[in-house]
Write a structure and sequence with these properties.
single chain, eight-stranded antiparallel beta barrel, alpha+beta, Lipocalin, globular, 7 helices, Nuclear Transport Factor 2, Chain: A, four-stranded antiparallel beta sheet
Length: 275
């Protein structure tokens, strides 16, 4: 029997059934309808519930391209409820503040970015390709947000004390410039898994696993062309507390940033060309 964790499949079935009757239904609308079927206020809320239950939700429905995004007015009291801290990883926090009638988001080690309301819970940036969606519980409390940038990155809300602790820990790592235990071995597994086209998603956080699934068709050919790993060299610790490696392959090199959570799961990883 299907339950809320099968929401994505149910939305697909609904679209196909209505399509057979010549009744059009968009991907976004089908997810929103299924969310309401399960008594949730919107897809963001149901997606957070699926994630909490150990599932991987479908990507949150995205709005129109930036060129046609329209800012709406949201009461400052509502905006103030969104302000606070949201944890991306063991080393990085996304802080949200309000400046006048819009929000400002800043990820550890990055510059602050203004975000403007497109819907009461959905905000977009004008100078970077990024959006954020807030997950609001039935009692009106804001429990988490999802950063839509190179995939969907869910972040749970944390208090100021926890945010300060993460900031201090990350600053210490950046100061010491020493690799975290296990990152080299984890990076080797990740590289080899992507190259083979069969990465171990159980070795990744839910957000990273979802992003990797989405990007695998683009990542796999490039890494496969580089060939087998010959050596790995630790370069230092990045601004978000991630370990930076240069990987030498048979036919070239790749540049990686990687971080593990407290359980040794890969929470952050991204690759760029070059040594």
């Amino acid at each position: 029997m299907r339950d809320f964790r099968d929401a994505k499949a149910m939305a697909q079935t609904l679209r196909e059934a209505l399509g057979a009757k010549s009744i059009p239904l968009t991907h976004s609308d089908s997810l929103e309808l299924i969310a309401r079927l399960f008594g949730q206020r919107d897809w963001n809320t149901l997606a957070a519930r699926i994630q909490a239950a150990g599932g991987v939700p479908a990507p949150t429905p995205q709005s129109a391209p930036d060129a046609v995004r329209q800012e709406i007015a949201v009461d400052t009291a509502v905006l103030d409820r969104y302000t606070g801290f949201y944890q991306l990883s063991e080393q990085a926090v996304f802080s949200v503040t309000r400046e006048g009638s819009h929000l400002v988001g800043q990820l550890t080690g990055q510059r602050a970015v203004p975000f403007f309301a497109e819907r009461p819970t959905d905000f977009f940036a004008r100078d970077v390709d990024a959006q954020i969606s807030f997950v609001v519980a039935a009692d009106g409390g804001v429990t988490s947000l999802v950063l839509h940038q190179n995939g969907d990155l869910p972040m749970s809300r944390i208090d100021a004390a926890a945010a300060r602790e993460i900031a201090a820990r990350t600053a210490e790592r950046v100061k010491n410039q020493s690799p975290a235990p296990g990152t080299e071995a984890a990076l080797r597994r990740l590289c080899e898994g992507i190259t083979s086209g069969n990465p171990d998603y159980n070795d990744m956080s839910l957000g990273l696993a979802a992003a990797t699934r989405e990007q695998l068709p683009r990542l796999q050919p490039g890494l496969a062309d580089l060939g087998a790993i010959e050596s790995m060299r630790f370069l230092g610790v990045g601004a978000q507390g991630e370990d930076v490696y240069s990987v030498k392959h048979e036919n070239g090199a790749s540049h990686w940033r990687i971080a593990l959570d407290a359980k040794g799961i890969i929470s952050t990883a991204w690759v760029t060309p070059g040594p």
